[in-house]
C-alpha cells in the first residue's frame, strides 16, 4: 500500500513510529507537511499539490493535524477524501472532536458520563454559570485550548468569577466544568482503535499540578480498566466517529467521566507505559479497512 501522513513535524516520536511500522510491513510511507499542500478544487477533478508537483494516488492518509492548523488541515484532508483516499480518521470526525463544546453535546446526547459542564456568552450571568457547575472549585477551559493550555482551576466562587470575566473580556469562548476532586490529579487515557480499547494508562500530574499532561511533568503507568470505563471509551470514540483516538477520563464517585477525545493521540507515553506496539496496530487497522472511496462523508461537512 501507499500511505501518506499529514503532519507538520516528521520527526515526532509518534510519526516516526508509524512510518517504521508501515515500512516494516512493506508499505510505502510519505510524511507530507500539511501547510505546504495546496489544492485545485476543480469540478470532478480534485487534486492536491505539494512542493510544486501533483501528489500521486495514495491508498490511505493518516491525518496528524496540529490544533493550530485545524482549519487548513481539515480542508486538505477533505480534498484527499474527495479523491477517494481512505482516511484513518475522517475530517468530519476530527472537526467534532476539536470542537470541545460540540463534542460534549454529542456525548451528552448519547448518555456518556461527563462532568457537569456549562456554557454561556453573557458575562452578566457568571454567577448563575458557576452555580450550575456546582460552585467552586470549578475548571474553566478555553474551547480552543489543547494539551492543558487554557485550563484554569478556580478554587473559590470569587476567583472563578474573575477568571471567567477576564476570558470573556478578551472575547474568547470558555466552558465551566465541575472539578472532580476525587480523581486526585490523575486521569486515564484509553487508546481506541477500530472500536476496541487496545491500551490504557493512568496519568498522574506533577506535584501541585491538577493537570496530568505528560509534557507538563506528569507520569504514566499501565492501568486496568473496569468494564464501565472500557465501554465509556468505546462509546465516546463512536460518538465522535473516530477510528483511532485517545479518550481521557476521570474516575468520579458516580463512575467514569470523559474530559476529552483526542483525534491525534501521542504514542510515546502509552507505548512506554504499556509496552504495546500501538503503531503496528494502527497500520494493521488500515490494511484491513482501506478501500478506495470508503469514506462515510466523502469530504462533506
Provide a concise account of the structure shown.
With 301 residues, the chain is of the alpha+beta class.
Structural class call reads alpha+beta
For the sheet with most strands, the description reads: 5 strands, antiparallel
The percentage of residues in β strands lies in: 25-35%
- How many DSSP H or I helices? 9
End-to-end span in angstroms? 28 Å
Stretches where pLDDT falls below 50 for ≥5 residues?
none
Number of strands: 16
Number of domains: 3
CATH superfamily descriptor of the largest domain: ATP-grasp fold, B domain
- The largest sheet has its strands arranged as 14-13-12-15-16
Q: What is the fold named in CATH at topology level of the largest domain? A: D-amino Acid Aminotransferase, Chain A, domain 1
Q: State Rg.
A: 20 Å
CATH class of the largest domain: Alpha Beta
| Order of secondary-structure elements | EHEEEEEHEHHEHEEHEEEEHEEHH
Shape verdict: globular
How does CATH name the architecture of the largest domain?
2-Layer Sandwich
Question: What percent of the residues sit in helical stretches (DSSP H or I)?
Answer: 25-40%
Oligomeric status: single chain
Mean pLDDT: 89
Would you write up a description of this structure?
By secondary structure, the chain is an alpha+beta fold. It folds into three domains: 2-89, Rossmann fold (3-Layer(aba) Sandwich), CATH 3.40.50.20; 96-113 and 182-284, D-amino Acid Aminotransferase, Chain A, domain 1, CATH 3.30.470.20; 117-179, ATP-grasp fold, A domain (Dna Ligase, domain 1), CATH 3.30.1490. Helix content is 32%, strand content 27%. The protein has nine helices and 16 strands. The protein has helices spanning 13-24, 70-82, 91-98, 100-109, 126-132, 157-169, 227-240, 268-274, 278-289; strands at 2-6, 28-32, 37-40, 47-50, 53-54, 60-63, 86-87, 117-118, 138-142, 151-154, 174-178, 186-193, 196-204, 219-222, 244-252, 255-262. The strands form four sheets. A five-stranded antiparallel β-sheet has the order 14-13-12-15-16, sandwiched between helices. Strands 2-1-6-7 form a four-stranded parallel β-sheet, with helices on both faces. A four-stranded antiparallel β-sheet has the order 8-11-9-10, covered by helices on one side. Strand 1 (2-6), helix 1 (13-24) and strand 2 (28-32) form a beta-alpha-beta unit. The chain is globular, with a radius of gyration of 20 Å.
Amino acid at each position: 500500500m501507499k500511505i501518506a501522513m499529514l503532519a507538520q513535524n516528521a520527526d515526532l516520536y509518534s510519526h516516526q513510529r508509524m512510518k517504521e511500522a508501515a515500512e516494516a510491513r512493506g508499505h510505502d510511507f510519505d510524511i507530507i507537511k500539511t501547510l505546504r499542500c495546496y489544492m485545485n478544487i476543480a469540478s470532478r477533478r480534485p487534486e492536491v499539490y505539494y512542493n510544486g508537483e501533483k501528489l500521486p494516488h495514495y491508498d490511505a492518509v493518516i491525518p496528524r493535524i496540529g490544533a493550530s492548523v485545524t482549519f487548513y488541515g481539515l480542508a486538505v484532508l477533505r480534498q484527499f477524501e474527495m479523491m477517494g483516499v481512505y482516511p484513518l480518521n475522517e475530517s468530519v470526525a476530527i472537526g467534532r472532536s476539536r470542537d470541545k463544546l460540540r463534542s460534549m453535546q454529542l456525548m451528552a446526547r448519547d448518555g456518556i458520563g461527563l462532568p457537569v459542564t456549562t456554557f454561556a456568552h453573557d458575562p452578566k450571568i457568571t454567577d448563575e454559570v458557576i452555580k450550575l457547575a456546582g460552585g467552586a472549585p470549578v475548571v474553566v477551559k478555553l474551547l480552543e485550548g489543547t494539551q492543558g493550555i487554557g485550563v484554569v482551576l478556580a478554587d473559590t466562587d470569587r476567583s472563578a468569577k474573575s477568571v471567567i470575566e477576564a476570558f470573556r473580556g478578551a472575547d474568547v469562548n470558555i466552558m465551566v466544568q465541575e472539578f472532580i476532586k476525587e480523581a486526585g490529579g490523575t486521569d486515564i487515557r484509553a487508546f481506541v482503535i477500530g472500536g476496541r480499547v487496545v491500551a490504557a494508562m493512568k496519568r498522574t500530574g506533577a506535584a501541585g499540578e491538577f493537570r496530568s499532561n505528560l509534557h507538563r511533568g506528569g507520569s504514566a503507568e499501565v492501568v486496568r480498566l473496569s468494564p464501565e470505563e472500557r465501554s465509556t471509551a468505546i462509546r465516546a470514540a463512536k460518538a465522535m466517529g473516530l477510528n483511532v483516538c485517545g479518550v481521557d477520563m476521570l474516575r468520579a464517585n458516580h463512575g467514569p467521566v470523559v474530559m476529552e477525545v483526542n483525534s491525534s493521540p501521542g504514542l510515546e507515553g502509552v507505548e512506554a507505559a504499556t509496552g504495546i506496539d500501538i503503531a503496528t496496530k494502527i497500520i494493521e487497522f488500515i490494511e484491513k479497512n482501506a478501500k478506495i472511496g470508503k469514506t462515510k462523508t466523502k469530504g462533506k461537512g
